[in-house]
Amino acid sequence: MKAFADAQNSLVAVQAEQNKLQKARLVLNAIELVQKAELAQKERELKEKLCEITCNLQRELQQNEFQNRGELQAVQIQSKWDEKELPTIFSRRELTDIFAQKSDFPLFICSKIQITEGSPKYFQTELAAELESKMLTFANSTFRRDVRFYSRFFKDRDVFDVNAAQLETILPNTPCVMSFSKLTRSNVHFHYKLWGSQIAEILHEHYDLEFSWREEFLQPLLDSVGEVSDHNLDNIYEMIGDWLTSLQKLIATFLMDLYAIVDGNNPFYMPKLDRVNVGLPEAVREKYIQPYAEILERVQKERIDAFNEELRRQQDAAYRQRQTELQKQRDEEARRKALNIPIPNTNLTLELAAIKEDDFQMGSNQNSNEQPIHPVHIKAFRIAKYTVTQELWKAVAAMPKVKDDLNADPSRFKGANLPVENVSWHDAQEFCKRLSNAIKQPVRLPTEAEWEYACRAGTNTHFAFGDTITPSQVNYDGNYPFGGAAKGQYRVTTVAVDSLAKNDWGLYQMHGNVWEWCEDVWHDNYNGAPSDGSAWMSGGDQSYRVLRGGSWSHYAGHCRSACRGRNIPSSRCNIYGFRVVLPLL
Questions:
Q1: Out of 3.90.1580.10, 3.30.160.270, 3.40.50.300, 3.90.1150.10, which CATH number does the structure's domain 343-583 have?
Q2: CB 560 within 8 A of CB 366
Q3: Which of 27, 144, 207, 283 is the most buried (most CB within 10 A)?
């Protein structure tokens, strides 16, 4: 029984394995079917894409073909229209080429010579074509790129003055010389129409040469040879034709030389007239060349004289400009020296700002002692950019005494570049006298009007920076702002004189840091104050002197441009300093 059971179990296991294999086979078949379906779908998509691309290419090629046909047809239509309707001897394409070229070079248009009936047969059959061909060859070899020469366009048509007038309306600013030649039974007429240049104005827009070719050329030749056969006569006519061509070359050379001299950039241009062989015989060469050469010589002399005069004018202007620049440099150097005065026997420099002369409104309605607001005229002066530093104070204190002794180190807050403080009005006066002796220039304290004018720097607000200030601009007690500003830092010390913000005239710390002594006696208001900016020394309270600007320990409102302070001239405090003023040199 056990063996049977084992066999039965083995059979079940085998059947289960067969079922798994069959399921796996079914799964593989399903995957294969899916993959085949996907491949078939991709194949269909690729075929559709290929078909679409092919159709697009065919459509694009067809459109390009239609477009090319349309453009060709348009060109043909335009060409026919130009030929019939365009009011000029040039086609639209030729005009486009002319416009595309530089207009600095003149345009020389040589039309076909007109031969009237009754003229010798040689002239009617040979001269016109030969003249046009020879002129083209001559122009290309003589003028090269300096002249844009046109002639071959006109073989089969006559060109008249009306064509020149039409062309001038199309090319009004292009320098043009247009030639019209006419030969009759007895005479020859060379006519030239000019526009777009100075020589056109000089020649009144045309130049003409007319003479009898029979009298000028034919008769002398006949007289020289005696009897003339038909063969000799043809040779004579051919010789005359060559001379007429040479004359046209001569006139063309003259006009182009004249253009180069008058309209060109080089007044020392060497005319080609004397250097080019136009083919005239010696017998008549001087007769025709000499008048043209004299004209060119006279015109060129005038051009050179004008050039030299202009050159002298430019040289004079350049010299004056250079002298002006040198004077500016000297003035700037003098100004620089005037605003940067070295202190003898030290490495220190008194840096000043130049304050211009002007009027301003002094005072404010904030406090009664700042009233009334009144106009003051300030003369120009120089004022120190910074309050006097402790380093400068020590240097001047070591100089010879004038009246009073000076403490070499009076300040509470120590630092070479900190403002000197704890100095009195009398100390400041002694300092100014010693410094005046040292630099040989008058040094003094600013008047109260000068101080406020310099502090405002052209403003009429409470401060040079606006109606409020911040501790980043001014050193004051930031716990007490002004005008609605937020509270800020209170440093409880002075700061370097060249730190924080400067006003628009380059002056540092006119607001805050230390109060600054002024020259004036104290008055309770401005009634009767001088209007010329001078120190107000009469009347008032003679026991007090004016202080301006506020300090590191005062409220923001005390630092206003118009705010006034006072103390006795002997008072010393760690909030009192000063800056100096010098007259403008």
A1: 3.90.1580.10
A2: yes
A3: 207
> How high is the pLDDT of residue 355?
96
444 bridge partner residues: 581
3 state SS of 490: coil
Q: Are 493 and 413 in contact (CB under 8 A)?
A: yes
Q: What is the dihedral of CA 64, 67, 73, 75, to 10 degrees?
A: -100
Helix H or strand E encompassing 483:
none
- Answer whether CATH 3.40.30 is correct for domain 92-251: no
Full strand arrangement of the beta sheet holding 581-583:
340-342, 349-355, 381-384, 581-583
Cα–Cα distance, 173 to 192 (Å, whole number): 18
Structure tokens at 204: 């009144």
> Distance between CA 395 and CA 388 in Å, rounded?
11
Q: Where are the domains of the chain?
A: 92-251, 343-583
Q: Which two tokens stand for residue 17?
A: 């394995």
**Nearest Cα residue to 569 out of 417, 414, 404:** 404
The whole-angstrom distance between residue 474's C-alpha and the CA centroid of its chain comes to: 41
Residue carrying the six token digits 């002399």: 301
- Do 92-251 and 343-583 share a fold? no
Query: Within 10 A of 27 (CB to CB), how many other CB atoms are there?
Result: 10
In this prediction, residue 77 carries a pLDDT of 45
Quote the distance between the C-alpha of residue 446 and its chain's center.
Answer: 44
- What pLDDT, on the 0 to 100 scale, is given for residue 560? 98
Separation between Cα atoms, residue 191 and residue 209, nearest integer Å: 7
CB of 500 closer than 8 Å to CB of 472: yes
3-state helix, strand, coil in the chain (%, to 5): 50, 15, 35
What was the pLDDT predicted at 331? Answer: 83
Q: How far is CA 423 from CA 341, 384, 480, 532, in A?
A: 23, 18, 26, 29
Q: Which residues of the chain have pLDDT under 70?
A: 1-12, 14, 24, 27, 30, 48, 51, 55, 59, 62, 66, 69-104, 145-146, 148-163, 225-231, 283
Q: Give the pLDDT of residue 81.
A: 44
pLDDT value at residue 570: 98
Return the CA Rg of the chain: 51
Q: What's the whole-model pTM score? A: 0.54
